[in-house]
């Protein structure tokens, strides 16, 4: 275990002074923090190490919000769809929404900022064809019989969604609902800056101001029963107001429409292929948010304190892989680590001095309860995070929530000790050196590119969904592989593929932003990729890559992939697919392959394919050659240690560099190896909760045979 301490932040609370001091010494933590619903005890402010204070720019000041109701935050929402059965229709826009969270905005002119849509025709209903009944809060429409209508409208956010979430999750009862206020608004902007200055003066012993986050909450909207109605961690629906939108119109040069935000009711889910107008709005918000956030960071710096941003809550507009993030001047970013993907989402951030991850589980009563398994969650979380840390290390780790819950759970603190010890050991052993990677890059191709790096195919932050796990598994595998990964968009293909990229992956469902939808109708895109593979590049497709029905094909790169999907249109054409599982990709794979949800009715075609796995007469894993290049098709690929090995082999095969894969190699698929050549060390990790035997090969020669304990990490001198 490591001989060094530090690199650890612990949460505390007003009634946990002695226990905090005990754990701080036991775990050798060098920072303490508060969190929502807790208070930092005065006695702990004298401790050695840093003191983090959570700072809310948009809430915890109901007095100001109540005095300035016009500057409360707002959100664009869309009413339920209602079918007219006569020539007059009344719609109650707030039906289905929680009225303690949202309040319809009748202060700003609805005819200017709302939009009534005929969803049957897709046309805007002219403003002279509808009125607002302010008394009943209904919209009265001159309708066409049996057409369907919606109202897109502005609502004030009168209960901060994160506070509401914490309130419900932790069963708070006597805590006042926290109103939100919009820091972008003129009066509130001045007030918040002056308030921050006063706070810095009144808290001289706080070293790190943790902004949670800055101004705009991601889309988190509740229904009438206080259940989550819309949750879009990437959503901009709650970053609007007439004040902001008027500025946008001047910047963009065209009139803003509510439809740019409500998007037919999809609210610009990250799965939607983004419209030009929505991309424009994202960029405008990033520009303006980064400017104002810098003002607050500069205030913090003027008092000799560090400024840290939480990658969550009100993070909209501070996209860390956007063009303007570095302008904010932050010292650090901290975020929740749910797996290897979300760790890389934090650790890959540039433009800050250090990164910090909050490991799961949070010390909340939904986990630390009868039937809960916080130790198991901590172990699973750490095994995924550890893989990614070896490739792209965080500088610090920590925990969040209520320390009293963690200390009462038998064995949990022992598990934390193991995690913290291994994290420090990684830093001690590698001493700032970089892990060996393949001599080429892998590109993930989708509509978002680097802006949403490590965010591909997620509904929201690290939440499991049946429809996505087969695709998130691809980037989860990659997060801990010895591979440099780039996220590229279709414009980068059109303008010329980076010559360092040897393999391109396109993974997801048809019609989504992840596969590209109508981008595949662009002859430039398909011809550039054909040229790329023909000249020796590799292409890996998962699910429905390059999918859009066009000119007798569903997969527009079916010639490269050697497969297409049967939609019923070509059932008259017989298919003669034969299984041949002998291949480099499957050489050390012993168990059945998990394709997750997979895709049905995939059939091989052409002259150069090899079917490695089938489900009855249809294919699930196929390789193909195309000129000098190669492709691999997977019906789906959830995360598992075995699937990591399969994908690793597929990447090296597609790149035509099979021999390079075994420069550093372990035989057991439940184990992985990382080489730190400049440090003269190799690390082998057991990614399972069972003992494992594995052989370590270096440059083709057996270095050592290892008997590994469950979850063990073993360092070997090169």
UniProtKB/TrEMBL annotation:
- The Lacto-N-biose phosphorylase C-terminal domain extends over 664-715
Ranges where the Lacto-N-biose phosphorylase central domain occurs: 441-659
Return one GO MF term: 1,4-alpha-oligoglucan phosphorylase activity
State the taxonomy lineage: Bacteria, Bacillati, Bacillota, Clostridia, Lachnospirales
Can you name this protein? Answer: 1,3-beta-galactosyl-N-acetylhexosamine phosphorylase
Record's InterPro entries? Class_I_gatase-like, Glyco_hydro_b, Ig-like_fold, Lact_bio_phlase-like_N, Lacto-N-biose_phosphorylase, LBP_C, LBP_M
UniProt cross-references to Pfam families, sorted A to Z: Lact_bio_phlase, LBP_C, LBP_M
Q: Which residues form the Lacto-N-biose phosphorylase-like N-terminal TIM barrel domain?
A: 6-437
Q: Which domain of life is it from?
A: Bacteria
């Amino acid at each position: 275990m490591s001989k060094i301490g530090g690199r650890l932040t612990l949460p505390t609370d007003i009634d946990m002074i002695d226990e905090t001091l005990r754990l701080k010494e036991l775990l050798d933590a060098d920072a303490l923090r508060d969190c929502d619903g807790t208070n930092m005890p005065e006695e702990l402010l004298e401790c050695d190490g840093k003191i983090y204070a959570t700072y809310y720019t948009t809430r915890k000041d109901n007095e100001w919000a109540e005095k300035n109701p016009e500057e409360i935050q707002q959100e664009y929402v869309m009413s339920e769809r209602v079918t007219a059965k006569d020539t007059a229709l009344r719609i109650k826009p707030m039906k289905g929404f929680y009225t303690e969270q949202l309040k319809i905005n009748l202060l700003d002119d609805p005819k200017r900022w709302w939009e009534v849509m005929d969803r049957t025709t897709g046309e805007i209903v002219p403003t002279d064809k509808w009125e607002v009944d302010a008394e009943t809060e209904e919209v009265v429409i001159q309708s066409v019989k049996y057409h369907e209508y919606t109202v897109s409208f502005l609502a004030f956010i009168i209960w901060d969604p994160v506070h509401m979430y914490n309130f419900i999750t932790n069963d708070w009862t006597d805590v006042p609902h926290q109103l939100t206020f919009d820091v972008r608004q003129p009066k509130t902007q001045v007030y918040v800056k002056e308030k921050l200055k006063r706070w810095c003066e009144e808290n001289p012993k706080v070293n790190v101001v943790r902004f949670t986050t800055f101004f705009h909450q991601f889309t988190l909207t509740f229904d009438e029963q206080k259940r989550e109605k819309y949750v879009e961690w990437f959503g901009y629906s709650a970053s609007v107001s007439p004040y902001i939108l008027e500025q946008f119109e001047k910047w963009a040069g065209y009139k803003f429409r509510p439809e740019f935000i409500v998007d037919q009711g999809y609210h610009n889910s990250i799965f939607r292929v983004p419209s030009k107008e929505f991309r424009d709005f994202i960029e405008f918000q990033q520009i303006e948010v980064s400017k104002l956030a810098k003002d607050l960071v500069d205030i913090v710096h003027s008092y000799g304190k560090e400024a840290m941003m939480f990658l969550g809550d009100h993070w909209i507009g501070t996209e860390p892989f956007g063009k303007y993030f570095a302008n904010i001047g932050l010292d650090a970013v901290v975020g929740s680590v749910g797996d290897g993907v979300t760790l890389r989402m934090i650790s890959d951030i540039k433009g800050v001095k250090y990164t910090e991850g909050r490991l799961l589980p949070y010390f909340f009563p939904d986990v630390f309860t009868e039937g809960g398994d916080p130790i198991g969650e901590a172990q699973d979380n750490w095994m995924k995070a550890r893989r990614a840390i070896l490739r792209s290390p965080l500088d610090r780790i920590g925990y969040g929530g209520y320390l009293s819950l963690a200390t009462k759970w038998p064995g949990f603190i022992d598990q934390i000790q193991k995690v913290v010890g291994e994290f420090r050991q990684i830093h001690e052993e590698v001493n700032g050196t970089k892990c060996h990677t393949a001599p080429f890059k892998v590109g993930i191709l989708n509509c978002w590119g680097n802006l949403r790096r490590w965010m591909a195919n997620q509904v929201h932050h690290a939440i499991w969904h049946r429809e996505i796990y087969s695709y998130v598994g691809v980037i989860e595998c990659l997060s801990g592989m010895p591979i440099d990964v780039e996220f590229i968009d279709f414009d980068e293909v059109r303008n010329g593929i980076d010559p360092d990229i040897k393999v391109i992956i396109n993974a997801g469902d048809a019609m989504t932003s992840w596969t590209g939808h109508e981008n595949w109708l662009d002859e430039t895109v398909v011809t550039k990729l054909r040229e790329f593979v023909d000249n020796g590049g590799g292409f890996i497709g998962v699910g429905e890559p390059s999918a859009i029905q066009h000119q007798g094909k569903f997969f527009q790169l079916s010639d490269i992939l050697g497969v297409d999907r049967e939609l019923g249109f070509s059932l008259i054409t017989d298919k003669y697919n034969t299984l041949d599982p002998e291949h480099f990709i499957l050489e050390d794979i012993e168990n059945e392959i998990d394709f997750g949800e997979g895709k049905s009715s995939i059939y091989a075609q052409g002259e150069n394919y090899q079917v490695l796995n089938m489900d009855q007469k249809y294919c699930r894993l196929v390789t193909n050659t195309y000129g000098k290049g190669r492709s691999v098709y997977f019906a789906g690929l959830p995360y598992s240690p075995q699937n990591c090995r399969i994908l690793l082999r597929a990447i090296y095969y597609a790149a035509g560099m099979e021999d390079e894969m075994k420069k550093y190699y372990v035989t057991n698929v439940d184990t992985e190896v990382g080489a730190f050549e400049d440090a003269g060390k190799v690390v082998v990790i057991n990614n399972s909760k069972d003992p494992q035997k594995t052989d370590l090969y270096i440059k083709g020669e057996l270095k050592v045979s290892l008997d590994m304990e469950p979850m063990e990490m073993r360092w070997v001198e090169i």
